Amino acid sequence: MIDLHSHILPGLDDGSPSLAESLQMARQAVADGTTEMACTPHITPGIYENATANIARAVQALEQELRGAGIPLVLHVGADVHVAPDLPERLAEGSVPTLNSSRYFLFEPPHHVLPPRLEELAARLINSGFVPILTHPERLTWIKANYDVVERLNAAGCLIQITADSVIGAFGRSALYYSEKLIDEGRVDIIASDTHGARRRRPGLSQAVVAAAKRCGEDEVYNMVVKRPNDILANRPLEPIGKAHAKTGAAKAGRFAGLGRLFKGGSV
Question: Which of 124, 139, 224, 263 is deepest in the core (most CB within 10 A)?
Answer without folding.
Answer: 224
